UniProtKB/TrEMBL annotation:
It is an enzyme of class 1 (oxidoreductase). The lineage of its organism: Bacteria, Bacillati, Bacillota, Bacilli, Bacillales. This is proline dehydrogenase. Substrate binds at residues 97, 285-286. Keywords: FAD, Flavoprotein, Membrane, Nucleotide-binding, Oxidoreductase, Proline metabolism, Transmembrane, Transmembrane helix. Pfam families: Pro_dh. Its cofactor is FAD. FAD binds at residues 161, 183-185, 197, 223-224. It comes from Staphylococcus caeli. GO terms for biological process: L-proline catabolic process to L-glutamate.
Length: 333
């Protein structure tokens, strides 16, 4: 349903809605896919997952960073979370976005912030730092920063979006780095990215297989798609890929039973745990990916207390989202 997808991607890019949502806190079911906004709630979540044999990668939410002060604050929050993971002896690492470190207005500032994070990571058991990929127009910045840092640090990696025609070349460029393989979450034009689910799925599987056979570091297979997971498990078996060369990843709050089942089968498993107040844009992207995720918020919307408690601003947000629920349902019919 491209219209629904475009609609939610559009909402995710609204700085007004993001700012507003940040003020009122997680709602519409977002609290089921974000691990709270206190270090205590985050630590509790990680402990619970670690006890099930699952490691985590934490994303301190926040993309609409427009001042140096905000970028430094984001960097400090990331280091605070890294310290909590280390101090509580938890099994986890970090996922960061260059945009939250200032890349949209000062790429050198983002580089310096990330370098400081990596220097700290070396004090915290060489914690891995993953650079999440964002919209295509930020890809050049990511590779530029990565190329500057990968000689100095071994614990930095990034994400390959299989919908990009360029994904194949990026895999060839970074065999020595730890890479996360995803289908891709943003809206990109057909001049740079595959558009149909079939093309994206085919490229995704092809690239994971290529990477598993050739890489010199861990490949994270990040998907909720059980067909892809079943296929890759068989590929791993047929090609005797060693266990420490790959892991599966999923997002916190999605397909938890399947995640626990795969971890229980003995595969390395990592959950991507979003944390903090800046929940809106992340949540809208999840709705864009899978309109069925609307069910997460549908029950919440029906609670009269939700609107009463949060006033007119939340009412506006609720109206926007409620409209989309209806549009989604109508289009499904
Ligand atoms: C850990 C992680 C990190 C990510 N990091 C990035 C990043 O840095 N940059 C980026 O662009 N994108 C990132 N993504 C998002 C990714 O690009 C996809 O947009 C997202 O994962 C949806 O695609 P999918 O592979 O899960 O499968 P989809 O194509 O969305 O789903 C395929 C099939 O899987 C099943 N399925 C999926 N979800 C569910 C569910 N909740 N319940 C039941 N069945 C379900 C359905 O049968 C569905 O048809 C990340 C995703 C993960 C899991």
């Amino acid at each position: 349903m491209p219209i629904v997808k475009d609609f939610f991607i559009g909402l995710s890019n609204s700085s007004f809605l993001n700012k507003t949502a940040k003020e009122i806190g997680p709602m519409f079911g977002a609290n089921k896919v974000v691990a709270g906004n206190t270090i205590k709630s985050l630590v509790d979540t990680i402990e619970r997952l670690n006890q099930k044999g699952i490691t985590v990668t934490v994303d301190c939410l926040g993309e609409f960073v427009v001042t140096e002060g905000e970028a430094i604050q984001a960097k400090d929050q990331i280091i605070e979370v890294m310290y909590a993971i280390y101090n509580h002896n938890l099994d986890g690492h970090m996922s960061v976005k260059l945009s939250q470190l200032g890349s949209e207005f000062d790429i050198d500032l983002a580089y310096r912030n990330l370098r400081e994070i990596l220097l700290k990571a070396n004090e915290f058991n060489n914690m891995h730092i993953n650079i999440d990929t964002e919209k295509y127009d930020s890809l050049f910045d990511i590779t530029q920063v990565l190329d500057r840092l990968k000689g100095e640090f071994r614990n930095v990696g990034t994400v390959i979006q299989a919908y990009l025609y360029k994904a194949d070349a990026l895999i060839d460029k970074y065999p020595e780095l730890r890479l996360r393989m995803v289908k891709g979450a943003y809206k990109e034009s057909d001049s740079i990215a595959y558009q149909t689910k079939e093309e994206i799925d085919d490229n995704y599987i092809r690239l994971i297989e290529k990477r598993l056979l050739n890489a010199k570091n861990v490949t994270s297979i990040a998907t909720h798609d059980d067909k892809v997971i079943t296929h890759i498990k068989q590929f791993i078996k047929d090609n005797n890929i060693e266990k420490d060369r790959y892991e599966f990843q999923m997002l916190y709050g999605f397909r938890s039973e399947l995640a626990e089942q795969i971890a229980g089968e003995g595969y390395n498993f990592c959950i991507y745990v979003p944390y903090g107040d800046d929940w809106f844009s992340y949540f809208m992207r999840r709705l864009a990916e899978r309109p069925q995720n609307l069910n997460l918020m549908f029950k919440e919307l029906l609670k009269p207390t939700v609107l009463k408690k949060t006033g007119i601003v939340a009412g506006t947000l609720a109206a926007v989202v409620a409209t989309s629920v209806l549009v989604g349902r109508l289009l499904k019919k």
